[in-house]
Amino acid sequence: MSRTVFVLNGPNLNLLGLRQPHIYGHETLDDVERDCRALAVELRLDLRFHQSNREYEIIDWVHEARTVAGGIVINPAAFTHTSVAVLDALNAFEPPVIEVHISNVHKREAFRHHSYVSLRADGVIAGFGTQGYLLALRRIARLIDEAAA
Ligand code: CA2
Predict the structure, then answer these.
(1) Atom 13, ligand 1: which residue's CA is nearest?
(2) What is the pLDDT of residue 65?
(3) Count of other CB atoms within 10 angstroms of residue 121
(4) Could you confirm whether domain 4-148 is CATH 3.30.360.10?
(5) What's the Cα-to-Cα distance from 70 to each of 25, 84, 88, rounded to whole Å?
(6) 123: which DSSP letter?
(7) Which residue ranges make up each domain of the chain?
(8) Is 14 in the pocket of ligand 1 (CB under 6 A)?
């Protein structure tokens, strides 16, 4: 099993830490990437970290992951609640997928309670702040280790 893990971030997450800190905290996406890369060294993972506001780019990265990755950590942001296309792409990816939400989507508006991506995700983390990304990486590393054992 490949130790390459894609960390994919959906629309508006480039604004992380710059707006709405009461919901999403003060860390920027660059901070999240730095923390993920530091943990990846410990977990012996090779990280590909991406963010896009364009649905097709997220889909193209999932397709690319099919050929090289042992897992995907994805915060699809608003595409979580709207995108059958992202779900279809993830359904064509076999290794583990962990869905991450910084906020507790279940404590928020009703439209955030449904996730297309959850129909595919092997695990979902919500409401742990940006620490959720690190927990997701630990889970993916464990699943990769177990598959190799
Ligand atoms: O809680 C999460 O991680 C979300 O995936 C974030 C999405 C939201 O649509 C989901 O329902 C839950 C929004 C990402 C936008 O992030 C921003 C961060 C700072 C300022 C503005 C937007």
Answers:
(1) 77
(2) 98
(3) 23
(4) no
(5) 29, 23, 18
(6) E
(7) 4-148
(8) no
Residue 19 has a pLDDT of: 84
Q: What is the pLDDT of residue 1?
A: 86
Question: Which of 26, 50, 101, 133 is an active site residue?
Answer: 101
Helix (H, G, I), strand (E, B) or coil at 94: coil
Q: 12 alpha carbon to ligand 1 midpoint, in Å?
A: 7
User: What tens-digit pLDDT sequence spans the chain (149 residues)?
Assistant: 899 999 999 999 999 998 889 899 899 999 999 999 999 999 999 999 999 999 999 999 999 999 999 999 999 999 999 999 999 999 999 999 999 999 999 999 999 999 999 999 999 999 999 999 999 999 999 999 999 99
106 is catalytic: no
Q: Is 56 a catalytic residue?
A: no
Rounded distance between C-alpha atoms, residue 4 and residue 113, angstroms: 30
Measured CA distances, 5 to 54, 62, 98, 104, 129 (Å):
20, 11, 11, 24, 20
Give, in order, the Cα–Cα distances in Å from 16 to each of 11, 22, 32, 59, 129: 11, 11, 9, 21, 11
State if residue 24 touches ligand 1 by the CB under 6 angstroms criterion. Answer: yes
> What is the distance between the alpha carbons of residues 38 and 58, in angstroms, rounded to a whole number?
24
